[in-house]
Specification:
Layout (H helix, E strand, L loop, with lengths): L22 H23 L2 E2 L9 H7 L10 E2 L2 E2 L5 H17 L4 E3 L5 H12 L5 E4 L15 H5 L2 E4 L2 E2 L4 E2 L1 H11 L3 E4 L10 H11 L2 E5 L4 H5 L13 E5 L10 E5 L4 H15 L5 H38 L3 E2 L11 E5 L6 H10 L2 E2 L1 E3 L12 E5 L1 H5 L4 H15 L5 H13 L27
Parallel strand pairs: 1-15, 5-6, 5-9, 9-10, 10-11
Antiparallel strand pairs: 2-3, 4-12, 7-8, 11-12, 13-14, 14-17, 16-17
Helix pairs in contact: 2-10, 3-10, 4-9, 6-7, 10-13, 13-14
The chain binds pyridoxal-5'-phosphate.
């Protein structure tokens, strides 16, 4: 598609009959899309993806994405569906729910939200009314757009109450936040970030939530796999009643959402269920739900080792970048306790230019707001995450090599092409999945079902 095309023009060919597109033109488009996606897969296989919110799916989970579950509907809960034919779906969903409760040691799970944002909407639908006050962090302090007036908060019509932030420690300022909470008394308090370096001080804030009668809600989209692996805080047992999440970031599952809860009030469970359906979903993408069951089982079997290495790699990358003169945030606290690190790259040209130059060399990152930034379009930071490179077997030694590539590209003026070929050489040794069944399988394989393009 050339620049300037909307993609909506359509093509009419001579063999179209009364169809809108000729078969030969349609076949050409199908072939083109396949080829673009293959190119993408090859590109990622040869790159160093350091996006904190991305991961790779195991072969057994991937297989279920193209199963017949993809074609079906199952509204409601297992055993209480609106359609016939759901017996096997019910069986798998019960397994999935059971594994979720086991993995996170809680009483309630719902696997119907189809993404993290949808899970957040379900919580807002269930536990807040339009006009309610809901505590959260500011976008500039690392919160997700769900908390914004133009995101889920705005859609539900709730009003944010912002916590005080400690930019040195990259987490909430407990003393000042307690004062805010006591003065404003929000109904619900959300703890979650997209730039999530350190655990929230939930132990310290829980008594204040209790005192003002606010429910604690944790958005674990980023850190779900770390919680599952026992290397991050355990929010459902530290002051939060409800947890929402994506299932494809540090938890290496399919693109999906999740609700968990541990509450003294069974009404909470009922409200969350109706928030999920019919609140914010109809069908819940049964193929992804089945894949999630596999990912939960694999996380129960492999997740501790994976989570430990993911955090160890983030710490190692941060330390190595720091030693090479990069301004990695939160040095005094050891840079990170999660899968993510934040680097101030004002000296190197700013977040946008640096992320672009890295991408040209095959190192995929994103520009990111960091404390002190005023423009979301021109932030001074980049965000780096280790979930994907850990999944293909990289360890501390490779993190040091990556820091050297950053240094050569961004400080020593080495040519993009030279760095790109070193990126490829390094990545070539790490293209196979680990920490799952079917380990050793090609991580970036394009599954060509028919072995040919349409004629
Ligand atoms: C903290 C947080 N919550 C929610 C989401 C949304 O998740 P999803 O992309 O699955 O909708 C994200 C995504 O990056 C996130 O960082």
């Amino acid at each position: 598609m050339g620049t300037g095309s909307t993609g909506n023009e359509g093509v009419r060919g001579s063999d179209a009959g009364d169809e809108l597109l000729s078969r030969s033109d349609a076949a050409e488009i199908v072939g083109r899309v396949r080829s673009i996606v293959r190119t993408h897969s090859e590109r990622f296989e040869q790159s160093l993806p350091l996006i904190a919110s991305e991961n790779l799916l195991s072969p057994y989970a991937k297989e279920l994405l193209i199963s017949d579950f993809h074609s079906r509907y199952a509204e409601g809960l297992p055993g209480e569906r609106y359609y016939e034919g759901n017996e096997q779906v019910d069986e798998v969903e019960r397994i999935c729910l059971d594994l979720a409760r086991r993995l996170f040691r809680c009483s309630f799970a719902d696997v119907r939200p189809i993404s993290g944002t949808v899970a957040n909407l379900a919580v807002l639908k269930a536990l807040a009314e339009p006009g309610d006050l809901v505590g959260t962090s500011r976008l500039a302090d690392g919160a997700h757009i769900s908390s914004a007036s133009f995101g889920a908060f705005g859609l539900r019509g709730v009003r944010p109450v912002y916590y005080a932030w400690d930019p040195e420690r990259m987490t909430i300022d407990v003393g000042r936040t307690r004062e805010i909470l006591r003065a404003v008394r929000p109904k619900l308090c959300l703890f979650g970030l997209s730039l999530f370096l350190f655990p929230f001080p939930l132990d310290e804030l829980a008594p204040t939530l209790e005192e003002i009668g606010a429910r604690g809600w944790y958005d674990a989209a980023h850190v779900l796999g770390l919680i599952a692996g026992g290397v991050f805080q355990d929010p459902l047992h530290t002051g939060c009643e409800v947890l929402s999440a994506s299932t494809h970031k540090t938890l290496p599952g399919p693109q999906h959402g999740l609700l968990l809860a541990e509450s003294r009030d069974p009404e909470v469970y009922r409200k969350l269920q109706s928030g999920a359906f019919p609140g914010v979903t109809s069908n819940h993408h049964l193929n992804a739900m089945a894949a999630l069951a596999v990912s939960f089982a694999e996380t129960l079997a492999f997740g501790r080792a994976y989570a430990r290495q993911t955090v160890a790699n983030a710490k190692a990358l941060a330390q190595a970048l720091h030693e090479r003169g990069f301004d990695v945030l939160a040095e005094r606290l050891g840079f990170t306790a999660s899968h993510t690190i934040a680097v101030r790259v004002a000296r190197e040209g700013g977040g946008e230019a640096v992320a672009r130059r890295l991408a040209d060399a095959g190192i995929i990152t994103n520009k990111n707001l960091i404390p002190g930034d005023t423009s979301p379009k021109h932030p001074q930071g980049i965000r780096l995450g280790t979930p994907e490179l850990t999944r293909v077997g990289m360890r501390e030694r490779e993190m040091a090599e990556i820091a050297e590539l950053f240094d050569d590209l961004l400080h020593r003026g080495r040519a993009v092409d030279e760095v790109r070929s070193r990126v490829r050489a390094l990545k070539q040794r790490f293209t196979r999945l680990e920490y799952c069944f079917g380990a050793g399988e090609a991580a970036y394989r394009y599954y060509d079902l028919l072995g040919r393009d349409p004629a």
